[in-house]
Amino acid sequence: MDKKIILEEIKAFLESDQILIDEPLKNHTYFKIGGPADIVVIPESPGQIKRIIQLCLRESIPYYVIGNGTNLLAADEGFRGIIIKMAKPFCGARIKENRICVGAGMLLPHLSQLAFKHRLTGIEFACGIPGSVGGAVIMNAGAYGGEMKDIISRAKVITSKGEEKIYSKEDLSVQYRQSMVDTEDIVYEIELELKPSTEEEIKRVMDDLTAKREEKQPLEMPSAGSIFKKPDGHYAGALIEDAGLKGFRVGDAQVSPKHAGFIVNVGNATAADVLALIDQIKQKIKEKFNVELEQEVKYIGGNN
After folding, report:
1. What DSSP element (H or E) covers 230?
2. How far is it between the farthest Cα atoms of the chain?
3. Catalytic residue, candidates 99, 177, 213, 249
4. Which of 191, 78, 56 is nearest to 133 (CA)?
């Protein structure tokens, strides 16, 4: 990739403040880990997204879509290609009766508050999840018995071929921590179908879930949320704790002493530290309980 030539083409349809060059990905991930991406772009419209993807297709440039970077581990070497960040320009919302059409860049806590103000229930489970709506659809984010699949009506997407499509709930085929949306597809708007309720009841649920998170999760430390998917018949955090790995660390990556399902960055952890810790956890759990842990956090970069 000839960065100079590519940048000239990008500058033809993006403003200078929408383009970041050699940008450290640690500035865009909750883990606070990650080397420089060649180019980070922050599109403001579906049309700009299409032009970016078409450019990447034509020039065979790798790209990756991120939101708030909450479920992401970026390589120490960074990312060779273009990072497309769905941010503030895609944070708008429209509400009609019990339906909310929301941009993929809106953060889940903000969406939860919006629903609360309009007395709509169903999204309370996400009030403490720091990710964006687009990433939540891709991953089918969930917590405390609620999941995105329960409330999605449809999603507007720009595919990896640069085509605009509308996926229905059935098209999305949402399953545990995944949907049919490819990681190279870009969700830019989602329609959610909620139910009417009262402010008192919604607030009660949100306050209860917030208290549980603050009590049990290491919210004060940089992390990527739950590092492993829930294995059949088990809880990853419980297995890791039972294996005596709470507080175990490699470099500055540590199994949280507060919740063993989280790995936290206690200082200047590298992606290599985190990956080495993940491998040791997997090996220990396999040896002790004969359970294969599957990584939930997404790893990007390195050799792409």
Report:
1. none
2. 57
3. 177
4. 191
For the purposes of burial, counting CB atoms within 10 Å of the CB of 187, is it exposed (0-12), middle (13-18) or buried (19 or more)? Answer: buried
**Mean pLDDT throughout 121-144?**
89
| 3-class state of residue 247 by DSSP | coil
The whole-angstrom separation of Cα 270 and Cα 120 is 41
- Closest Cα partner for 230 from 240, 243, 221? 240
> Is 287 part of the annotated catalytic residue set?
no
Catalytic residue among 112, 223, 226, 256: 226
Does the pLDDT of residue 249 top 90, yes or no?
yes
What domains appear along the chain, each with residue ranges and CATH number?
3-88 (3.30.43.10), 91-201 (3.30.465.10), 218-300 (3.90.78.10)
Q: Mean pLDDT across the stretch 249-272?
A: 97
Give which of 31, 148, 56 is closest to 100, Cα–Cα.
148
Which helix (DSSP H) or strand (DSSP E) does residue 254 occupy? strand 253-255
226 is catalytic: yes
Say if residue 38's pLDDT is above 90: yes
pLDDT tens-place string over residues 138-148: 888 888 888 88
Read off the tokens for 15. 């403003």
**Do residues 36 and 46 make contact, with C-beta atoms less than 8 angstroms apart?**
no
For residue 102, CA distances in Å to 61, 99, 156, 243, 275 come to 29, 10, 10, 42, 34
pLDDT at 178 over 70: no
Distance CA 176, CA 32 (A): 26
Predicted confidence at residue 256, as pLDDT, reads: 97
Is 296 assigned a catalytic role? Answer: yes
The H or E element that residue 294 is part of is none
Q: Write down the residue that tokens 């895609």 correspond to.
A: 90
Which of 203, 210, 194, 207 minimizes the C-alpha distance to 116?
203
Q: How confident is the model at residue 180 (pLDDT cuts 50, 70, 90)?
A: very low
CA distance 136 to 189: 12
DSSP string, 97-116: TTEEEEETTSBHHHHHHHHH
